Amino acid sequence: MEASSSSSLWGGLNSGIVLSLLAVAWTMLWQALQGLQLHHFFDRHSRRLSRRLAAILDPDLTVTIAEYNGGRMRRSDAYKEAKAYLERATREARGGGAGGGVRHLRAEPDKDPDRVLLSMDDDEEITDEFRGAVVTWRACTAPQREDTGPAYFWRGGAGQRAERRSYKLLFSERHRDLVLGEYLTHVRREGRAVMVKNRQRKLFTNISGDGSWDSDGFWSDSVWSHVVFEHPKTFATLAMDPAKKKEVMDDLDAFRNGKDYYARVGKAWKRGYLLYGPPGTGKSTMIAAMANHLDYDVYDIELTSVRTNTDLRKLFIETTSKSIIVIEDIDCSLDLTGKRKRKKKKKEEEEEEGKKDGDKEKEDDSNKAGSSKVTLSGVLNFIDGLWSACGGERIIVFTTNHVEKLDPALIRRGRMDKHIEMSYCCVESFKFLAKVYLDVDDHPRFDAVAALLREVDMTPADVAENMTPKAPGENADSCLAALVEALEKAKVDAALAKKKKAKGNKEDAGAADDEDEEEEEEEEE
Ligand SMILES: Nc1ncnc2c1ncn2[C@@H]1O[C@H](COP(=O)(O)OP(=O)(O)OP(=O)(O)O)[C@@H](O)[C@H]1O
Ligand SMILES: [Mg+2]
To answer: Does this entry carry the keyword Cell membrane (predicted)?
Structure first.
């Protein structure tokens, strides 16, 4: 027993010495390797080796979430959600939380230009815990297949993307049900929430939307191209009758929270707004404020660039939920106004003249405005046809300077549910703009401005422009003086224009009287 104990003592001492020597040797080797910059190589391979050893001892189940699945050219939603979830886990891990240990990170531009978004680099791992089950996520890359299909050429041939990425989720057999049943749902849901939080809103246009490179470096043949939407206008800086503004904001809130209501009454979850009023009264500005209020994307349709009704439908189908679809100056974009009436009149004329090929000419005539063949019925279908119900949560906004010119079918309730008039600057709007632009609540010149605004029409755009300091020395006094001057000039101009118009009307009436007399004389003769 003794011998064995003394031998075990010696054995223990020996092994202690051996271990100490090994540790010293390893430290020296490590320092030498660091000098040679080879530690990255050994670090990576030793981790791989330990992972393989662990896998042999305790085989895990795996779930792979690939970045691109099937023949699809779009990133899979599940991958994007897992990525967002793991980005958050990586962020938290850096603070010493669960799932730490990520040493090689990938940095991508963040929404905030001063920061970067960190995710784990290829071959990195992160652990996560869910109701007592510890799982491991591994970022994997595989060399891309030699792709010779059309997508290969769209992407500009070789070198566009060298690898295919995926996430592998490793977990123990005993957590199979928990992970497959609940954890994956949890990851997707949380990932989606992170994505919504980090979402950069976009402004889409259909001009030159025949395809573009998307943010993932892939060629997308979408009919839309986009930029980041960064309009600073909010309802807090939009001059408008306060009651009217509140009504619009309440209406938008009711729409956003109305999913159940729309489902209950069996209506597609969309709402049409018609903004009308003279140029410079804030229609486009209101759209920006709406988008910022709702946190929606904006799809700005240039209708004259849409060739056919089918293209218009395609544009609609490719819009996403939570978006505002805008057609500005609808009266100018297309000859939608009274087209049906004119067609009818023309038909009657043609019938009188016995024209046989009248239909063809009629078509040609209606297309003269441009190469666009979008018709009123195409636009009506776009707003409330069967397709318009796809996707949900969309707001459609039309703007016009001439509401009276629009076909009543286009703007009837149900299509354009809410009509909002944007009008010239009133006294309340002026005071609001004075506060926003000059930071003044009251000023001796306010009365003069108010009196002039009651007599003369000036748009909020002009009022705002006059109240914008344009040189270093300018202040509220000088800006308000400039505004009074501009209003007085506008008053004189308006009086002159009125006089001229009255004179013109008189002359027209005189000419008409002469014509009538001539006609009467002819008839008498
Ligand atoms: N009601 C308003 N409140 C605050 N600023 C306004 C308002 N109306 C106009 N403006 C200012 O005037 C400028 C022009 O306004 P906006 O482009 O919205 O006019 P619009 O009604 O769309 O004109 P148009 O009919 O010519 O398209 C904007 O940059 C905005 O700053
Ligand atoms: Mg506008």
So the answer is: no
